[in-house]
Design brief:
This protein is α/β, with parallel strands linked by helices. The chain has one domain: NADP-dependent oxidoreductase domain (TIM Barrel). It has twelve helices and twelve strands. The relative contact order is 0.14. This is General stress protein 69. Its EC number is 1.1.1.-.
Length: 332
Amino acid sequence: MQQRQLGPFTVSAIGLGCMNICHAYGAPVSEQQAERVLLAALDAGVTHFDTAALYGFGASETLVGRFLSQHRSKFTLASKCGMTGVPNEQGVKVRVIDGRPETIKATCEDALRRLQTEVIDLYYLHRWDKKVPIEDSVGALADLVHAGKIRSIGLSEVSAPTLRKAHAVHPIAALQTEYSLWSRNPEIAVLQACRELGVSFVAFSPVARGFLCGPMDVSAFDAKDIRRSMPRFSPENYAKNQALLPAYNAIAAEVGCTPSQLAIAWLLHQGQDILPIPGTTSVEHLMDDIGAAAVSLSADVIARLNALINQHTVHGDRYNAQANSEVDTEVF
């Protein structure tokens, strides 16, 4: 697979997002299936694995540590802090955004234990806690760099001004946010800021949370599937968005690739500094995603894709009101 720079690291152009194996899109897969996917990715040349304390409230980090720690020298490990599961009054863990320095450092210690490693290569602030100055949270991450707990710092779902403030405290190696044909927010200002500062851009949900993979029955989503709360997947909006797929699928057929490969290839063509991290629970889908690295798109095809699926043709926000209030990104 072609290689790209992720901050100071050279990694596979396509990485693996490890959220899906235990979090977000319904019931988690078995540990055996998670192991198959993780090891198949490593065997196929994936050298960038991305997880977080939030995913499965530590379960994803645990699985990555259990099945990949013995191969630690073969890949770049990324994880995230600042958003974790905290027990409520009933003892049930709920998602909490907490960017206080002491919380960041405690979360890192837990992550190192779960990941079975002495150091995390790239450690992101998963969400900026707006009650805490970004300089304080990044300062805590800088302390972790100096202590040898992490090698570099990343930010997730932040705006260009916040990135600049953070970068003034300590160099930021990577910024991660949603980016795909149907989520273009990074194009407003963040991509340009990353390029000015020499920050790699990691694109999560590159296949539009499954929308660009093929037909889906949104009514059949698991009760815990996070897409149920996303406006683009509401019955009304999804019916309108589906109207984009026939022309999109026709372009994929013309290029000679699958719909998911077309989506990831489009991202790879947006710049050498962009690293997609699709996630999956299927080895078959994993191999399909990785195949996008070999897909070449002409300028004409890219122009047609841009005209077909963009912020003006997609119906519905990417997040609901609550989730939108928790991110710090520019919006069209």
